[in-house]
């Protein structure tokens, strides 16, 4: 049984994470060094024998003109989400955060509730009567994760809605991942669709070369990242953000993050960042040029990240967020179509849940400050 939650040191937190197969990179102590505009604290869960049995990174964002904060554990904490007694895990957390001045707590359970295979997704896209993947019977579902959701509701937690089609405030509930366990490169390649294989051959024939870069290459990455932001209509991060991210993540683990560059005849055509914690690797940021898109640098750099994740012993390559749309008229459809070409699977997480501690302040934050909240909670994109 969990008996208490208290602050732990960075070294204790890093050591605990190292005992797990993986935790989200947003739950590493180093991530607090990236989010300099937030306060932060590493917390540990201790059992009756004073053994550390869980951990989490809390980010605190203070409301203007108050001494109250939102306490946010992005894609965390790392606890036993299959427990039939989640209250024993979450109640001590809430008591600690209330004493720290939190007006609300937001958590992000990475327990997988449902998965859909690439063939199932393709069939859903081809069916004009289906508009959302959530309406399609999954290939697998996790009863323990569904029980966790029912427990959270009973404990007063509120699920974040997906009114934005899956890209709601915070971290995505829907992601796309490529299972790597038990596979080799040939098997992964055979699992991709014909378009992906053709594009990889096209990139190789055109002479696209993918290499690992260093901090000195970040200005080149950022140049085409700004081009991508202007083309795709999102607000870009400054160069300093990426410089800091690489610095602090590498300080925690020398192979926590990598920068990949795809060149064609000396021209940078695509660039990405790759993050790894334990046996889980993530595609985190990507950029590409409009010029020379026909040489398929984006496919080539993804394949390099996939094969490097496999070589590093990873069991999962995570392509991050998608929506659950399969409607041919939805502008987000192209995103899932690109990712499903890898032969992976769509995954629905338990997702993000809020517990209001001060209902008046929470309502003000959730409604009146909703647009500001979107900016405050933009952690990855």
Automatic annotation (TrEMBL):
Q: Which InterPro entries does the UniProt entry name for this protein?
A: Acyl_CoA_acyltransferase, FEMABX, PG_Glycine_Bridge_Synth
Q: Which UniProt keywords apply?
A: Acyltransferase, Cell shape, Cell wall biogenesis/degradation, Peptidoglycan synthesis, Transferase
Write down the superkingdom of origin: Bacteria
- Write the signal peptide boundaries: none
Record-stated family? Belongs to the FemABX family.
The molecule here is called Lipid II:glycine glycyltransferase FemX
């Amino acid at each position: 049984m969990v008996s208490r939650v208290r602050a732990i040191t960075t070294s204790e937190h890093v050591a605990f994470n190292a005992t797990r197969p993986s935790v989200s990179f947003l739950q590493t102590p180093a991530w607090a060094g990236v989010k300099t505009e937030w306060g932060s604290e590493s917390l540990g869960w201790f059992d009756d024998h004073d053994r550390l049995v869980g951990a989490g990174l809390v980010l605190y964002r203070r409301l203007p003109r108050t001494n109250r904060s939102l306490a946010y554990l992005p894609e965390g904490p790392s606890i036993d989400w299959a427990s039939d007694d989640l209250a024993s895990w979450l109640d001590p957390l809430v008591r600690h955060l209330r004493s720290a001045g939190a007006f609300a707590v937001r958590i992000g359970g990475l327990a997988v509730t449902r998965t859909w295979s690439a063939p199932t997704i393709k069939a859903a896209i081809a069916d004009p009567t289906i508009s959302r993947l959530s309406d399609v019977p999954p290939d697998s579902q996790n009863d323990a994760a569904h029980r966790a959701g029912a427990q959270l509701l009973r404990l007063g937690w509120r699920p974040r809605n997906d009114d934005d089609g899956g890209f709601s405030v915070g971290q995505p509930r829907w992601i796309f991942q490529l299972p790597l366990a038990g596979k080799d490169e040939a098997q992964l390649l055979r699992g991709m669709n014909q378009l992906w294989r053709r594009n990889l051959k096209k990139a190789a024939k055109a002479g696209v070369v993918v290499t690992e870069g260093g901090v000195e290459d970040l200005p080149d990455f950022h140049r085409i990242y700004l081009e991508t932001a202007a083309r795709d209509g999102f607000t870009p991060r400054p160069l300093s953000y990426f410089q800091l991210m690489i610095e602090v993540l590498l300080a925690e683990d020398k192979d926590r993050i990598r920068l990949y560059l795809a060149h064609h005849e000396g021209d940078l055509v695509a660039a990405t960042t790759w993050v790894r914690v334990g046996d889980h690797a993530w595609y985190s940021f990507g950029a590409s040029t409009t010029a020379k898109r026909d040489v398929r640098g984006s496919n080539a750099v993804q394949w390099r990240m996939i094969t490097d994740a496999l070589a590093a012993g990873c069991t999962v390559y995570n392509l991050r967020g998608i929506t659950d749309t399969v409607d041919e008229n939805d502008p987000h459809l192209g995103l899932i179509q690109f990712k499903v070409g890898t032969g992976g699977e769509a995954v629905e997480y338990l997702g993000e849940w809020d517990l209001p501690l001060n209902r008046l302040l929470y309502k003000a934050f959730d409604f009146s400050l909703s647009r500001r909240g979107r900016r405050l909670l933009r952690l990855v994109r």
